[in-house]
Amino acid sequence: MQVLRKAFTQQLDEIVTAFVNSVDADQSLIEVDIKGSIAHATMLTKQGLLTEPQGENIVAGLNQILQEYEDGKFTLDACFEDVHMNVEKRLQALIGEDALRLHTARSRNDQVALDLRLFVLHQVELHKEQIKVLQGALAKCALANLDAVMPGYTHLQRAQPILFAHALHAFMEMFKRDGERFADLGKRASVSPLGAGAQAGSGLNIDPHFSAELLGLNSCFANSIDAVSDRDFVAEYLFAAALTSTHLSQMAETFIIWATREFGFIAFSDAVTTSSSLMPQKKNPDPVEIVRGKAGVMLGELVSVLATLKGLPLGYNRDLQESKPPAIKVAKELSNCLAVMTVALQNLTVNGENTMKAAADPEMITTDLVEYLVNRGTPFRQAP
Ligand code: ARG
Quick one: which atom of ligand 1 is closest to the CA of 320? Predict the structure, then answer.
């Protein structure tokens, strides 16, 4: 069974069907898709484009599909192409003819843009929360080791003594900005494209502001062509995620160095280390290394979306379908990395003796001696 083929004389080729469908990625968009349809049906009812009983029937059917999804009973079929057509087909099976009115004044082009915006907005909230938890773990670790003095490094050469807590708080600042970046892009993503239709809006008496309000979004689109054709909010999301993962990677790399026998500043407990298949004495910081590796994966997804967008002519183009898997993949990867680094911090101990021994290197107080002389009137350039 295939959809939307009234004007066609042939069924879609099997290989092509398997190629064009987006049901894998769309698994992650089922809830937001239904939420968007409920808002759309409610708006159509308010505008008199659906009767009250039709609107109620549609909303009840959509809620039932949501329930079926939560119970693991609603799955997407590739022959219906995407989540939108799967939901519509299921609705038709559940409520009959009224389902045929849901797509009034709507296109899958504004629908998919909405789904992805709602998905990104949800992830933004989750990431902001997880970043706060990570910062809590950083603050706790810094506080528990307030008296630990260690060398600070420039060029990975010993520079000046610092507190271990000072170093951890540097990462706190990075993650604070990452959280702010997510919040900031969230404001721009919070725009409803519903009502933009395929690209030129609708001739019917719709109220896009009302559907935006129902969805809790800040505003509705200003230009219908832009609303369906840009995915800059995905690129921004992927950039914020790539930068957060870069900070996580820098922290991971720093910890990996500090945990070597050569440095011996910190150790990870057995809960966050793995062993070698050949050398049973080894305790390796694999989880933290994988966090470092994942930054490359996330950066790649950002580049892939920018590359997809750069060649597109104005208007909806099917290439845009390729912007969904990167957002979905990165959401999961970043969430995992934030969680793992939080656990790593909770399982990190500082070897204060070793950090102090390294910090006591007399070369590192050279700058303090220079400042002593400056305080006594020696010109700075003549002090060293
Ligand atoms: N599956 C499509 C996507 O993910 C939905 C929009 C399809 N629109 C169309 N006119 N073929 O972008």
Answer: 12
